[in-house]
Amino acid sequence: MAETLNPFENMKKQVDKVAGMMNMDENIVKILKSPMKSILVSLPINKDDGSIEVFEGFRVQYNDALGPCKGGIRFHQGVTIDEVRALAGWMTWKCAVSGLPYGGGKGGVIVDPSKLSEKELEKLARRYIYAISEEIGVEKDIPAPDVNTNPKMMGWMIDTYCRVKGTASIGVLTGKPINLGGSAGRVEATGRGVRFAAEVAAKNMGLDMNGARLIVQGFGNVGSIAARLMVKECGCKIVGASDVNGAIYDNNGLDIDKLIKLTETDGTIKNYDGGERISNEELIEKECEILVPAALENVITSKNAKNINTKLIVEGANGPTTPEADKILFEKGIWVVPDILANSGGVIVSYFEWVQNIDHYYWPEERVNNELKEKMFQNTQAVIDMAKKYNTDMRDGAYMIAMERVADGIKIRGIFP
Ligand code: NAD
């Protein structure tokens, strides 16, 4: 089949591939490829100029065989229903491979948030959560932040949900500000998880992280935190970084503290003093030992995979590599820690947050980070062992573990009615 950039089609291709390798029951595979519920909502808001604008939003609950659905909310102009379906599917596999008692879900709103005022953004966030308020709940479907949504927005959303439902159940959303029931360590969790997954993979492949050249595409929440920890704690040398405004490259190394400072002061690294300015496409092909794509989908395709010049790819973003590119990377001997494993630190700590909300008892950050480390180490090693057993790549290994767990859940429950 020709290469497609439709993320839902690509996710289903991956499911079919692994189902075939495992001789999985075709009837179960039909369920694994079908999102359980797709909700479409229209979201009118009063703009500051007195006009009304109507946005479109989605919530997809992909599968709940193993527990309530779980997954973030993306605000982006490029959101489509198929992207949300794919992201909800990936959440299903991510929670399963992580051993969490969750199914998968995801939400999205088609909007370029940079074009809204703070007040308008707040109205849109509140209207979206109101529109899906009957569909979510602590034991039903638990959203969280994703691209362009953040703890502050979770605060507005929690307030709206609690007012509308007449409840104080703050466990309905994770990724909240700390004083609203958020977990210590949640903001850094995904990037920290990327760093732990990278460490286990590097050890297994005999790659010394100390001095290893690192390139990070997408210097946002996940990318910047993964970069900082991999430089400060593992001794990597960051030689390239990018965001939506372009890329900066210097084989002698960039200053990680300056890059981080710029994200705090300017919200972009484009004003970094030094390095060579190149495009995001050029950056991804530069020579390095570790490459972390941490922006959006489809950045490594059959077109550029043969030019990728790294040893280890750790997928901070969801869906950065197409199935066709996977094949090329595997033939080149490049290890890829797949998204559903590499960026699972976020949902793991979201799970800790949910547990703390239900218990009304809060953990110190050290406990959060230690338990995250333990899970990431165990899960990454299990995936590597599975991939070795079947002589295949880590993506297949991760899907094998995840799909088997979800399929088992479906079989044990049976089909209603
Ligand atoms: P973010 O909005 O904080 O950061 C995204 C970064 O990517 C920004 O620096 C942005 O400028 C950059 N970017 C956007 N378009 C780009 C392009 N075309 N080329 C290069 N850079 C571009 O978002 P985030 O939360 O860090 O999420 C990044 C990825 O990680 C997404 O795929 C998201 O689904 C995934 N993810 C995030 C979390 C989380 O906890 N935040 C958890 C799991 C997975």
UniProtKB/TrEMBL annotation:
Residue ranges annotated for the Glutamate/phenylalanine/leucine/valine/L-tryptophan dehydrogenase C-terminal domain, each copy included: 183-414
CDD domains with a match to the protein in the record: NAD_bind_1_Glu_DH
Residues holding NAD(+): 190, 221
The keyword NAD is assigned to this record: yes
GO molecular function: glutamate dehydrogenase (NAD+) activity; nucleotide binding
Name of the protein in question: Glutamate dehydrogenase
Species name: Muiribacterium halophilum
Residues at the catalytic site: 106
InterPro entries according to UniProt: Aminoacid_DH-like_N_sf, Glu/Leu/Phe/Val/Trp_DH, Glu/Leu/Phe/Val/Trp_DH_C, Glu/Leu/Phe/Val/Trp_DH_dimer, Glu/Leu/Phe/Val_DH_AS, Glu_DH, NAD(P)-bd_dom_sf, NAD_bind_Glu_DH
SUPFAM superfamilies: Aminoacid dehydrogenase-like, N-terminal domain, NAD(P)-binding Rossmann-fold domains
Family in the record: Belongs to the Glu/Leu/Phe/Val dehydrogenases family.
GO biological process, one term: L-glutamate catabolic process
